[in-house]
Structure formats: C-alpha cells, structure tokens
Design goal:
Low-confidence stretches: none
Largest sheet: 6 strands, mixed
Number of strands: 13
Strand order of the largest sheet: 10-9-8-13-11-12
Radius of gyration: 18 Å
Order of helices and strands: EHEEEHEHEHEHHEHEEHEHEHE
C-alpha cells in the first residue's frame, strides 16, 4: 500500500522537514477581528508575536471539515491510505474533524491518530509515520509504532501566567492555582488529552530546572531519546538551553521548536517547554 501522512499546523514541523518527508499539512486558523490567518501559511510564529503587541489577542479555530475532505480526495488519486496525526482532541476538535471527514471520502482509507499532545512532539509522530510510510510499512503497523512511542512521550511547559489558557477554556484543574497566580510560574502538562497543572514553581529558572529534572528521570536509563525545546518568542534562550543540555545528555538528540500562532494564543509570549520520547 502507498500511504500518505497528514498533520495539522500545530505540529510546527519546519517546512524543509515537511518537504523532505512529503508530509501534508492542514492549517488551523487565528482570527484577529475580521481577519482570518491560516497558521504557518499566512502567518509565521515571529509575525504572530509582533501582531499581538499591537492588536487584541486573537481567537483560534479548527480547520473546516471540507478542507480535510478536499485533501483526502486529492490524495486518493495517488495513495491507498493516509495517516492523520493531530493535536490532542482534549484541546481541539481538529482530530474529530479528521475522523468525520474520513467517513465522507471514497477510494482512500484514513487512519486518524490522536497525538494527545501538540507542537513538535506531535511533529515527532508525523515524521516517524512518514519515515515508515516511505519504507513501505502498512498503515496498521505505522499506527502501532506510534502507539508504542506514545508510551515514552512527555512534555512539560511553563507559562508566565494562566490568563490566556483560562480565557480560552484550555486548562483543566486551574482552581489549584487561583489565588497565587502572581507568585508562581505554573508548570503544566497533558494528562488524558487535557492540559492540567503539574506543579507550582516560584521562578522561571526553577521551572526550567524542574523540566530538566523530569527529563533526567527518563534519560538516565541511557536509552536514545529525541527531545525538543519549545519557546514562545524566546529563540535565543532556547538555543542556550539546547547547548547546555546537549553537553549533559549525549543520548538525547535536542532540537528547537516553537509555540506558533494557535498554541501561542493560548499560552502567551515567554512560555517555554520541552517534550521528548524514545527514538
């Protein structure tokens, strides 16, 4: 079987990697007033953080089902199957949109995969799927491999405040932090597909150190890992962190990703995180 791979824009896979592995991308949208931008097509992450300095914070929306249908129908002329890797269904209806669209097309079998996460950790799944597809693996085997990777996937991220997440309804269990928002740098993670508080930490430096401690618990096994440092318009800080950690963990391959327009809308500028999984 010939298998295509689709992901959405919140995987934030660099375009050169998408091109290399022939990964197709469905964009989510950011909406500034009456202006709708397709993330990663009409607006880059750096442009987004410039825009929000002078405009009211945007809203976001998932791709229309018709956009999925059109892409699947286009792929059906060349492929037998498609693996669809999407951001967590607990924070977006994008995955469900792919599921619905999969019932509306003929001539191609669609395998939606809920990454239960977002950003470049989601991207890791899509790239793995594309590598396996290029080797001619069957789609069921690819999905099984992604499920194995999910067992070792973790991501933790720090936000300067919880206002954006609370406003957008993307944070579960926020009550634990109410009353001390000004005094803490909340550390968050995904549990059961939702973003939930992990720990209250007093400073940015300590929050980042805590993330490294959590990485260390896994990396200490000596197994080969891939990790991504994810920033919200803090590229230089991310590069410094990458250099520091690469020297400490030779068994971990570090890359740098970003919180793009859609995820950045809900986290806010200055957020920093890291995700990893076994290779």
């Amino acid at each position: 079987m010939k298998t295509a791979v689709v992901t959405d824009s919140t995987a934030y896979i660099p375009i050169e990697l998408r091109d290399k592995w022939n990964i197709h991308m469905i964009p989510l949208n950011v909406i500034f007033g009456n202006e709708v931008y397709q993330e990663e097509i009409d607006i880059t992450w750096s442009q987004f953080y410039e825009e929000v300095k002078t405009k009211k914070l945007p809203t976001t929306s998932q791709p229309p089902i018709g956009q999925f249908v059109a892409l699947f129908e286009q792929l059906a002329s060349e492929y037998d199957a498609v693996i669809c890797v999407h951001l967590s269904s607990g924070i977006s209806g994008t995955y469900q949109g792919a599921v619905t669209a999969s019932t509306m097309v003929e001539g191609i079998k669609v395998y939606p995969f809920d990454s239960e996460i977002s950003c470049m950790v989601q991207g890791f799944y899509a790239i793995e799927a594309a590598e396996l597809a290029a080797r001619g693996e069957e789609p069921e085997a690819i999905i099984n491999r992604l499920e194995v990777l999910k067992q070792s996937a973790h991501a933790y991220f720090m936000v300067d405040d919880l206002a954006h997440l609370q406003r957008g309804g993307r944070l579960s269990g926020a009550a634990a932090f109410i009353g001390s928002l000004l005094q803490v740098k909340p550390l968050l993670h995904f549990v059961d597909k939702a973003i939930v508080p992990f720990e209250k930490i007093r400073t940015r430096k300590k929050a980042m150190k805590r993330i490294v401690d959590l990485l260390d618990e896994d990396a200490a096994s000596g197994a080969a890992y891939q990790a991504v440092i994810i920033h919200a318009n803090r590229e230089e800080e991310a590069k410094e962190w990458q250099n520091e950690l690469s020297a400490l963990y030779p068994n971990v391959e570090f890359s740098i990703g970003y919180f793009g327009a859609v995820i950045g809308t809900h986290l806010g500028e200055g957020s920093m995180g890291m995700g990893w999984m076994k290779k």
